[in-house]
Amino acid sequence: MQHPGVFLSCLFAFGLGVSTHATAVPPPPVVAHVDLQRYLGDWYEIKKIPNRFQSQCTGNTTATYSARDDGRLNVINRCLTDAGSWDQADGIARITDPVTNAKLEVSFVQLFGWNLFWGDYWIVDIADDYSYVIVGHPQRRYGWILSRTPTLVVDLDQRLRELGYDPADFEATRQGLKP
Fold first, then answer.
1. Distances in Å between the alpha carbon of 11 and those of 15, 92, 131, 163, 164?
2. What is the reported pTM?
3. What's the pLDDT at 24?
C-alpha cells in the first residue's frame, strides 16, 4: 500500500532545505566516475543521518533506480512504517555533472508534469564492485550508506571521517522487519 502524502510532504521540506542551506565548509569530494548501468537496481539502506522526510520509516528502507529514455533515472524509495504499512515515494534523478555522473539531483514532487524542489544527491564513495555506496550532500546535512544486500560487513566509519562526516551522526537502519 502506498502512502505518498506523508513521504512527499516531507520530501518537499527536504527540497526547500537543500536549496537554502549555506555553509563555509567545503563540500565533500565525489567519486571520479559512476557507471550508471552498474548503479541501477536495488539498494538497501544500511545507515542514514536522521532526517524529517524519513521519520515515518521504521526499517526495511530501500531505493531502486532504473534508466529512463530521456537520460534521467526513475527513483523509488520504500520503507516500512511504524503502522506496519509500506510508504513509497516515486521520483526522478537527473545528472548534474556528466563528466563523473556522481552529482545528481532528485525530485519527488511533481505538479502538472513538472518536477519541483530538486535536492542534491552526491555519490561520495562507491565500492569497486558496486556492492556499497555512500551518498552525501554538499553541506553534509544528509547522508546514506546503501548496500546491494540487507547487511554490510564493511566498516565505513574511517571513510566517513575522511569525507568530513561524523560517523556518530549516522544511525543504523533495521532490515528484515515483518510488515
1. 6, 13, 26, 25, 24
2. 0.86
3. 75
